[in-house]
Amino acid sequence: MAKARAIIKRLKAVKNIRKITRTMELIATARFKKAMDRASEATAYTEKISEIVSDLSQADLEFSHPLLEAPKSEENCILLVLSSNRGLCGGYNASVLRNAQIRIKDARKQDQNLSVEVAGKRGISFLKFQGVELDQVYENFDDSPQFDEVEAIADRLIDLYIQKKLDRVDIAYTRFKSVSRQEAVLETLLPIGDLSENSEDADENKAAIDYEFLPTAQEILEELVPAAFKAKLFKCFLDAAVSEQISRMVAMKGATENADEMITDLSQKYNRARQTQITSELSEIIGGTAALE
Amino acid sequence: MASAGRLQFVLVTPEKTLIDEPVLSIQFPLFDGQIGILPSRAPMVGRLGCGILSFTTAKGDNKSYFIDSGFVQVKGSVVSLLTNRAFLPEEIDASEAKSKLEEANTRVARTEEEALSKLKDQESARKMIHMSKN
Fold first, then answer.
1. Which residue in A45, A211, A224 is closest to B13 by CB distance?
2. How far is CA B58 from the centre of its chain?
3. Rounded distance, CA B51 to CA A283, Å?
4. CA of B47, closest CA in chain A: separation in Å?
């Protein structure tokens, strides 16, 4: 009965794993819905900000702000890496970390002073294993990042940048394009390249409105640029959270399907093994009686 | 464009849209003082201060929120308020606001920016305390 026993053991193990992956899939689906709702609620703010930016751009003013200016040399840089706290989400972390490593290598080549900040336990342990020094780690970001927490990071980055202690900020995260498409990207957050990149399509129908600016367009801009930066950073965190849940959902769905396949396969094998055993036992008995006669 | 007598009020924070409903009038703090908005106001973009936002809904109820800096955009009949933080008066934690005020009072400001942020923090904490009492 040795072989059949072994198969039964394995079958049980696979069934247990299937239970886990199936549960994870369901949890990820529920969390994805929640994260998605949050992300779509947050877009209202980002949209309004870019609307005001385009309103301001009609006012014929020089867009000058410390956060928009690129420094002459890129000496001190920060790389933010947004990974997940938990595993079982397919290639999600791997692709984010691959991008992060590209940037780290790049910085080493160009002799930049790069400090790496990582959110998510997975990224932290991976980069530690790779021997990368981490200057700041965050484990508090889960599937619903709070604006206050993100704002604290943004404020610190803005301060450093304005004091010229920091010349460039990059972020490695997973951008959410649609439910079926997310991609790991490496983006430069500071200096802010173009503030009004998202507002071009709306230009035509608002050219007629003549706004009153209180106090002045310039002063509003001074406040608006940091706000736009914070909104952008917050969006990165939200995107990462949504993408994490989607990739977990997909990965777990695949795992459950594979487990199902294995279960059918193994039960078939077990039945065959059992049948062979019965047959061989029968033939032994028949052989035994034949010898006695 | 603006149909007379109607005002759509939208209050958004980075996390969610708190209010999107027709109102009769709105009062809120700009960077230099209180402003009131009635229907058919000329378009404007402004910087907000911190303090109390109150508005009268179409049914005639008065509602108020505490807001802390941000922007306002008036366009046609739509008034949009973008703010980092907005909460109801009953959500204010008075003891937390008091400790914040004390912290701001004892902080030593060395540069002009620090002085400005100290003043701002003091003001916002005082307003929070004041609002929680009402």
1. A45
2. 20
3. 93
4. 6
Q: Is B102 on the interface with A (CB under 8 A)?
A: no
User: CB-CB: which of A151, A210, A215 is closest to B43?
Assistant: A210
Does residue B80 sit at the A interface (CB-CB below 8 Å)?
yes
**What are the pLDDT digits (tens) for B40-91?**
888 888 999 888 899 998 888 888 898 888 899 998 889 999 998 888 877 8
Superfamily designation of domain B7-89: F0F1 ATP synthase delta/epsilon subunit, N-terminal (2.60.15.10)
Q: Report the number of secondary-structure helices (H) and strands (E) in chain B.
A: 2, 6
Given CB atoms, is B1 within the 8 Å cutoff of chain A?
no
The set of residues, in sequence order, having a beta carbon less than 8 Å from that of A264 and lying 6+ positions away, is: none
Domains and CATH numbers, chain A: 2-26+249-292 (1.10.287.80), 32-248 (3.40.1380.10)
Q: ipTM score here? A: 0.80
Of B32, B42, B47, the CB nearest to A220: B47
The reply to whether residue B14 touches residue A230, judged by beta carbons under 8 angstroms, is yes
CA nearest to B83, candidates B104, B64, B66: B66
Compute the nearest-CA separation of A113 from chain B (Å): 28
pTM beyond 0.95, yes or no: no
Residue A208: burial class (beta carbons within 10 Å; 0-12, 13-18, 19+): exposed
* Per-residue pLDDT reduced to its tens digit, A152-194: 999 999 989 888 888 889 999 999 988 888 999 998 888 887 6
Q: Residue B103 corresponds to which amino acid?
A: E
Q: Which residues of B touch A50 (CB under 8 A)?
A: none
DSSP of A84-116:
-SS--STTHHHHHHHHHHHHHHHHHHTT-EEEE
Q: What's the pLDDT at A202? A: 45
A230 touches chain B (CB under 8 A): yes
